[in-house]
Amino acid sequence: MKKTLFIIATLLPLLSSAQEYTPIKQNPITSVKDQYRSGTCWDYATLGFVESEILRTTGKTYDLCEMFVANKDYMDCATHNIRMHGFSQFNQGGSADDVFEVIKKYGICPEDAMPAPGSLVGDSLANFESFIPILRKTVKSFSTGTNHLYDADESGLNSWVRTITGWQESVQNVIDKYIGKCPESFEYEGKTYTPKTFAASLGLDWNNYISLTSFTHHPFYENFVIEALHKWRLRPSFNLPIDRLMTILESAIMKGYCVAWGGDVSGNFDYNTGIAKLPSSAEEVTQELRQQQWDNWQFTYDHVMLIFGIAKDKDGKKYYMVKNSWGENYGFKGIWYMSEDYIKLNTTYLFLCKDAVKKKMLKK
């Protein structure tokens, strides 16, 4: 998903600008990472969210492996695409749901249990420029026909049996070659784990998390699958009025919870200043405006980040503090400030712990 080419920004002016913001609430997070030349914001941001959840619940700091998640998720996505005979999304993108589904199904490992991102292609950070085109070509060869075997029936009429063979091994070999093979077991702090036992040791209930959204083309207070390019798993989100969604976001942050944010950064998101805000001339953000911009593609789902705090600028305007996954050369050493109205207009979904949501809301 969203990742621009590197812009080497001058840090001193950025740090000076950051001093204009006064934190009101700032929850613990792990270090800023760099997805570099890979469309894995969903992976980096959500594992950052998981690391923050572990910090919140246990006080322990972990560095979890994004390439483990990418390996398993791309294989799942390829499997789905082939089962759909090519009629489904297959690209680098994903969502917070994908990370949790991978952990629940396969487990997770620490960063150093797999080859470092980019190392298998001679780079120092994740680089999918060769990997993804080859992976797509391999998947397409099985899902659209070039590896199909046709057998005419005895009548010689236009009926046949269509089969494909060896696709699982072929696809997995491409994934393993470029980003590394997932370990069956590994050592961590003197103990031997499998990915599943390691996930269990982290102390989180992987089913205790929820995705919330806000659109009018589906009824409020019901679940629905967001019609977005990178939501291939078709996991539902709970639909709420936008003002209620914003109230939940603020309440969660103030109660000490971080929130994974999926939304749009294609407009009014200034990579040089590290500040995302709507222009002063923008119209008031309403439920209707959100829906209009979603339906005409002014507002899309193209990025995932981690919201961890709330700050105010010198005029008292509220901003949310966000950890991005583009390294420390963007924003304020990787930290961004997104205005409340920007988030209100450009949020596709929020992913957070159910405990951060009031019980009355959960009953609905």
What would you say this structure looks like, in words?
- The protein has helices at residues 11-18, 41-58, 66-83, 96-106, 131-143, 167-179, 195-201, 242-254, 287-295, 340-346, 359-363; strands at residues 22-26, 149-152, 160-163, 186-188, 191-193, 209-213, 223-224, 237-239, 259-263, 269-270, 275-276, 303-312, 318-323, 335-339, 347-353.
- Mean pLDDT is 91; it is low at 4-16 and 156-160.
- The chain starts with 10 loop residues before the first helix and ends with a helix.
- Helix 2 crosses helix 4 and helix 3 runs antiparallel to helix 6 (167-179).
- The longest helix is centred in the N-terminal third of the chain and has 18 residues, at 41-58.
- The protein has 11 helices and 15 strands.
- The chain is an alpha+beta fold and 364 residues long.
- Strands 1, 6, 7, 8, 9, 10, 11, 12, 13, 14 and 15 form an 11-stranded mixed beta sheet that branches.
- A hairpin with a 5-residue loop joins strand 12 and strand 13 (318-323).
Quick overview:
The chain has 364 residues and is an alpha+beta fold. 34% of the residues lie in helices and 18% in strands. A hairpin with a 2-residue loop joins strand 4 and strand 5 (191-193).
User: What portion of residues is helical?
Assistant: 25-40%
Beta fraction of the residues? 15-25%
Question: How large is the radius of gyration?
Answer: 22 Å
List the secondary-structure elements in sequence, H or E.
HEHHHHEEHEEHEEEHEEEHEEEHEH
* C-alpha end-to-end distance: 32 Å
Mean pLDDT over the full residue set: 91
Count the helices. How many? Answer: 11
Report the sheet with the most strands, covering strand number, pairing sense and barrel closure. 11 strands, mixed
